[in-house]
DNA sequence: CCATCTTTGTGCACGCGTTCACAAAGACAT
DNA sequence: ATGTCTTTGTGAACGCGTGCACAAAGATGG
């Protein structure tokens, strides 16, 4: 998973646990695949396997939405697709703006998964005047001067930030001031927002670092079988030999 | 946050809770910024604010690593940077391969956050013969025929998958067979891997769907103040009016 | 109509993660 | 040396999420 958890204090939104909400898109994807293969019904066991979760967990998750299954049979695929879509708010159209059209911004603009799921890229915005007018994913990039107008004209409530970290907070502030209340942040920065605004964070390098931790542990276990030496790192390395380099959060593509 | 949690059964790896491991990169980033500003020490309160977490949580997290603070003073920034880096395994160099050089793959290849944190892009791999030899982020793209040799020659243990979902599992299988034991998956697919292999998943569209859920709830609360009608959706919509379209998991950029 | 079989929906217990609140530890001044 | 003040490190309580295991519900067949 990515990372963000700059989220509401785990307030159980309308009775549906946050953990369940996070899994609904997973179920929806699996159900959609079944729907295309014209499978009429599916048991919790089968669907759980397809979504990569435990069947008991899946049933409990669905129980928060209501009693949509039939005992002895399973769940009606089409019906469940509709119910989950409705619950997630995907039956309506969500206009989205992407701010910062670098490599990552362009990748997102081209990402088919958005358009097909109720999200519509309303505008691509970049601060570089040279980018203005350029076509990306069939959409003309607009200069950030017009950000506020774009937001209000299109009724945008969801913004995606793919700018360098240095300007992310400033962009965020402008988005929020213009009326955006949900932000998906790809910049490696902690965003501060007023109450009522949701921020989710996707941090590419954090994911790798977590993998590295486990990878190191795997390697360490084999080595640990040999030596039985001091597990404690000994007092204060006073190191001048830390990481490879100074290592700024690193400028993002855009 | 992103999504993946296809993870070990919450086994507490060497005493450090999984939740803590996931926050260490956050602390590391904040500490690195302080280090650059030559700040010598920092209190748990200050650092917690910079990382966007609770100070009690931060102290407890650090307590799993050892007693690295000084009461009445705080934490030595440089020392803590070193300790966390070491704990995460970032003091060594991790060669990484990226498979699937589309928009997203290219974005990742260009992403500075990798190289600066102990990760080195050892190779870019794509199945399209037309891509072979092309330069992306200063690295020559190689054809996927040579995948196994590239992995073993470079001692790669971490692989990043940015392919279309249809081939993700096949790529994953080849990576694992070649010796990769950690995978970061951007393809919207559930990957099946043998024991001992870690998979983390970043799903861009899932993050947006979660935001949409909360966005809808916010909008719904205002509306709910007015009407007091049936909250239940009434029996079985039998809808032919589900989502915008058939909606496959959507082919990824690459 | 009854018996059997399948699969859901959920009560319950357990464990992880978070937060509070405070004692212990050290810095610093006198 | 002693006292005060700051900040860490952690014991304990609480709440959320997970998984087990089973009763209830419905399908299906005789």
Give an overview in words.
- 2 copies of one chain form a homodimer.
- The first copy, chain A, is α/β, with parallel strands linked by helices and 254 residues long.
- Chain A has 2 domains: 71 residues, Winged helix-like DNA-binding domain superfamily/Winged helix DNA-binding domain (Arc Repressor Mutant, subunit A, Orthogonal Bundle), CATH 1.10.10.10; 111 residues, 3-Layer(aba) Sandwich (Rossmann fold).
- Chain A is built from 9 helices and 10 strands.
- Chain A has a 7-stranded mixed β-sheet. A 3-stranded antiparallel β-sheet of chain A has the order 1-3-2.
- In chain A, strand 6 and strand 7 form a beta hairpin.
- In chain A, helix 1 packs across helix 2 and helix 2 packs across helix 3.
- Chain A starts with 17 loop residues before the first helix and ends in a 28-residue tail after the last helix.
- Chains A and B meet through helix 1, helix 4, helix 5, helix 6 and strand 9 of A and helix 1, helix 4, helix 5, helix 6 and strand 9 of B.
- The first copy, chain A, binds a DNA duplex (30 and 30 nucleotides) through helix 1, helix 3 and strand 2.
Could you give the topology of this structure?
The structure is a homodimer of 254-residue chains.
Chain A: H1 18-36, E1 41-42, H2 44-51, H3 55-65, E2 69-70, E3 74-76, H4 77-88, E4 94-99, H5 103-110, H6 112-115, E5 119-126, E6 135-136, E7 139-143, H7 147-154, E8 158-161, H8 165-178, E9 182-185, E10 198-201, H9 204-226
Parallel strand pairs in A: 4-5, 4-8, 5-7, 8-9, 9-10
Antiparallel strand pairs in A: 1-3, 2-3, 6-7
Helix pairs in contact in A: 1-2, 1-4, 2-3, 7-8
Chain A binds a DNA duplex (30 and 30 nucleotides) through residues 10, 12, 17-20, 43-45, 54, 56-57, 59-60, 62-63, 67, 69-75.
